[in-house]
């Protein structure tokens, strides 16, 4: 079986048995071959091509995700990751030459990328197709066997992934485990060679604690409150469209790098709000709850969480646009709030929804202190035409990633690593970074039998110490000794 389904109890014993099977497959050596890796990547690409309608439908069932978003933000990115890996894989697998030093003369050196072994990938619900398969592609490219645990909060996509992967990839090396907390716990009890988890910080801490018991390395893709600093020196129309697209046009704010709050000046806030209102009505109409281009909230629990943020006494009076909600459809309209208190819930939790607070400052430069007073975010955005402010922002703000004069798009560049810093996570992947994330860089030094140098061996005489000192300071007088032609010392 390629899929461990929910039927029957998936406990620690079954998880251990699954891991044992995959270790046997890895020990056979087949996943290390270029041919196996290429074939699995081609199979994943074919799977996506042949099942696009089913994927779109699963995403609609889970999140009411518009077809356009399903294709652009999930399907196309998975296909791009596959194609990029197929194009670059041979180069990535090639050993890298490394420099040597006079200390090891004569010698040569190289770095070999080898697969880690059996890896566990626990994915998230908000982009359930992309965030499941993107790291799987990296793990395959690096030559590992893989267990994928999709999120139970997106059940339609989880079920589809289990069904499709069983039919398209090598079942002895790539498996899917469906389920919820019990199944995840059973998996985390095992000793993996690496774990990648995408989700919230609370579960991330559990994953890290479980991994620590086995000294297992982890990649944690968490989140945080990603700020958007908006200067007055901008193209306001373009900026508003890009902010709206990144906030509400990406899963209705249910995105880890979604703009979480805006900081702008008191004098510019009204113009910005008017521009955002105009774009929101242009994109989603005057009744956004009826728009087919706006995703719903994933479930009633998250709907209640967002409602609680919005209905807090110190926040409810700060709404300047939106605020409508429909619990039966699990829809909340795009909502803008102005000058919410710093101690409010909405300013101390990652929003992960369609609510966007705006904080005002006297000078735009004051925004840097506000951001730096908080935990380091997964993403930070700046809209400005000032090169001075841009330079200051890049130098002073620490974030997983940054984008100037746009939002979210940095995730689509395979040449850039995607990952957090501090409480927003650590480790990264995408493109070559995915291959590296699931590889061990093995250092190899080659030396011939000629050129044996006596200075390295006892007894350690004063002359040997002087010679060693000259060697370490790159004196040319030690060359004869290095090749075994010098006097005995």
TrEMBL record:
<dbReference type="InterPro" id="IPR029510">
    <property type="entry name" value="Ald_DH_CS_GLU"/>
</dbReference>
<dbReference type="Pfam" id="PF00171">
    <property type="entry name" value="Aldedh"/>
</dbReference>
<dbReference type="InterPro" id="IPR012394">
    <property type="entry name" value="Aldehyde_DH_NAD(P)"/>
</dbReference>
<keyword id="KW-0560">Oxidoreductase</keyword>
<feature type="active site">
    <location>
        <position position="256"/>
    </location>
</feature>
<dbReference type="GO" id="GO:0009737">
    <property type="term" value="P:response to abscisic acid"/>
</dbReference>
<dbReference type="GO" id="GO:0006081">
    <property type="term" value="P:aldehyde metabolic process"/>
</dbReference>
<dbReference type="GO" id="GO:0005737">
    <property type="term" value="C:cytoplasm"/>
</dbReference>
<feature type="domain" description="Aldehyde dehydrogenase">
    <location>
        <begin position="34"/>
        <end position="443"/>
    </location>
</feature>
<dbReference type="InterPro" id="IPR016161">
    <property type="entry name" value="Ald_DH/histidinol_DH"/>
</dbReference>
<protein>
    <recommendedName>
        <fullName>Aldehyde dehydrogenase</fullName>
    </recommendedName>
</protein>
<keyword id="KW-0520">NAD</keyword>
<dbReference type="InterPro" id="IPR016162">
    <property type="entry name" value="Ald_DH_N"/>
</dbReference>
<dbReference type="GO" id="GO:0004029">
    <property type="term" value="F:aldehyde dehydrogenase (NAD+) activity"/>
</dbReference>
<feature type="active site">
    <location>
        <position position="221"/>
    </location>
</feature>
<comment type="similarity">
    <text>Belongs to the aldehyde dehydrogenase family.</text>
</comment>
<dbReference type="InterPro" id="IPR016163">
    <property type="entry name" value="Ald_DH_C"/>
</dbReference>
<dbReference type="InterPro" id="IPR015590">
    <property type="entry name" value="Aldehyde_DH_dom"/>
</dbReference>
């Amino acid at each position: 079986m390629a899929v461990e389904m929910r039927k029957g109890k998936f406990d620690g014993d079954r998880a251990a048995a699954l891991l044992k099977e995959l270790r046997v497959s890895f020990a056979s050596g087949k996943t290390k071959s270029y041919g196996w890796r290429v074939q699995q990547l081609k199979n994943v690409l074919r799977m996506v091509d042949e099942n696009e309608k089913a994927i779109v439908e699963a995403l609609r069932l889970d999140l009411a995700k518009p077809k356009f978003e399903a294709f652009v933000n999930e399907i196309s990115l998975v296909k791009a990751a596959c194609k990029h890996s197929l194009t670059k894989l041979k180069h990535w697998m090639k050993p890298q030459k490394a420099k040597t030093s006079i200390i090891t003369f004569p010698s040569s050196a190289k770095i070999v990328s080898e697969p880690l072994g059996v890896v566990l990938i626990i994915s998230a619900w908000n982009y359930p197709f992309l965030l499941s398969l993107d790291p799987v592609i990296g793990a395959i490219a690096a030559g590992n066997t893989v267990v994928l645990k999709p999120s139970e909060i997106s059940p339609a996509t989880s079920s589809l992934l289990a069904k499709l992967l069983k039919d398209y990839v090598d079942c002895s090396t790539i498996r899917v485990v469906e389920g919820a907390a019990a199944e995840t716990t059973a998996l985390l009890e095992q000793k993996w060679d690496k774990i990648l988890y995408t989700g919230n910080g609370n579960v991330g801490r559990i994953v890290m604690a479980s991994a620590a018991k086995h000294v297992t390395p982890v990649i944690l893709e968490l989140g945080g409150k990603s700020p958007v600093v908006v200067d007055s020196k901008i193209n306001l129309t373009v900026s508003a469209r890009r902010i709206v697209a990144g906030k509400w046009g990406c899963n209705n704010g249910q995105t880890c790098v979604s703009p979480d709050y805006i900081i702008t000046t008191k004098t510019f806030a009204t113009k910005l709000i008017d521009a955002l209102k105009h774009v929101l009505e242009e994109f989603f109409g005057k009744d956004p709850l009826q728009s087919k281009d706006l995703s719903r909230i994933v479930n009633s629990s998250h709907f209640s969480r967002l409602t609680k943020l919005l209905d807090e006494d110190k926040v409810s009076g700060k709404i300047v646009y939106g605020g409508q909600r429909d619990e039966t459809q699990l829809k909340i309209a795009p909502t803008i709030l102005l000058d919410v208190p710093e101690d409010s819930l909405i300013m101390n939790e990652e929003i992960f929804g369609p609510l966007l607070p705006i904080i005002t400052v006297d000078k735009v430069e004051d925004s840097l202190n506000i951001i730096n007073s908080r935990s380091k975010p997964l993403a930070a955005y700046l809209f400005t035409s000032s090169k001075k402010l841009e330079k200051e922002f890049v130098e002073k703000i620490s974030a997983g990633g940054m984008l100037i004069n746009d939002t979210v798009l940095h995730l689509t560049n395979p040449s850039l690593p995607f990952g957090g810093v501090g409480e927003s996570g650590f480790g990264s992947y995408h493109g070559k970074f995915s291959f590296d994330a699931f590889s061990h860089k093995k250092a190899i030094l080659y030396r011939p039998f000629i050129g044996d140098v006596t200075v390295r061996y006892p007894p350690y005489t004063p002359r040997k110490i002087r010679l060693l000192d000259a060697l370490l300071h790159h004196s040319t007088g030690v060359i004869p000794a290095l090749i075994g032609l010098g006097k005995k010392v």
